[in-house]
């Protein structure tokens, strides 16, 4: 049977329709083969729906192109940008969708297209009488491409305001997730001029090197001074009124050393042994 010419003309464009940006974003093979040194020549950068970015430029990157895209059941702003020599594509929750928690849907989309993630972290916490503070991150490694999902915001019963982002950039970019590390330390105190050791309660902290934050065992951030989490040793100071505790944890040996100061004068020394383990995050 012959197909009428006008029907043939209507069908051909459907059969030859180019892949949309959403299709390309989920193409793991394309990202594995991505040449980030020439990102501007890739199909994603040359997709026809991009328009010039006319918004305010953040201080650490230059944004050049923008478009809206439907993905994982929600609407997103896709932005092409440059951070120094590194090209990046980022999806941001639109303001209208910030009151919908898109984190889980975006995570499921990533699982479907990219498989199991290489790393996940969850530093979410809740203070008494306050909304849940969400702080979750997921990383997929696809060849030379790193895909990172960030979810941050607040949630309380029906109220929520959560910003979800999905970054595509080179594996060389300084965006690799760092696992949260839990340190549990025994402690004993020796006052100045005394050799007698007095046992203290165990100290438990979580090191969040990616956010340069020291946390309690329930992930609540701790206010610190002189914080050093990268390298060896870990150093931090805790202050309450005129009392300051300077701590030092040797990562290689787990040895804990500390000095107690009051009104600027040394009052005691603290010693102990720490044991470290990675924090296993819950599913986003």
The overall strand count is 17
Q: Please mark out the parts with pLDDT under 50 across 5 or more consecutive residues, or reply none.
A: 3-16
- Portion in beta strands: over 45%
Number of folding domains? Answer: 2
Choose one word for the global shape.
Answer: elongated
Structural class: mainly beta
Mean pLDDT comes to: 86
**Biggest sheet layout:** 9 strands, antiparallel
Notable characteristics:
2 domains, 12% helix, 9-stranded antiparallel sheet, Porin
Task: Explain what this protein looks like in three dimensions.
With 284 residues, the chain is mainly beta. The protein folds into 2 domains: 18-170, no CATH class; 181-278, Beta Barrel (Porin). Helix content is 12%, strand content 48%. The protein is built from 4 helices and 17 strands. The protein has helices at residues 5-15, 21-25, 28-32, 103-114, and strands spanning 51-52, 62-71, 74-83, 86-93, 119-122, 125-126, 132-142, 145-156, 159-170, 181-191, 198-208, 213-215, 225-228, 234-240, 243-249, 255-262, 265-278. The strands form 2 sheets. Strands 1, 2, 3, 4, 5, 6, 7, 8 and 9 form a 9-stranded antiparallel beta sheet that branches. Strands 12-11-10-17-16-15-14-13 form an 8-stranded antiparallel beta sheet, with no helix packed on it. A hairpin with a 5-residue loop joins strand 6 (125-126) and strand 7 (132-142). The longest helix has 12 residues, at 103-114. Mean pLDDT is 86; it is low at 3-16.
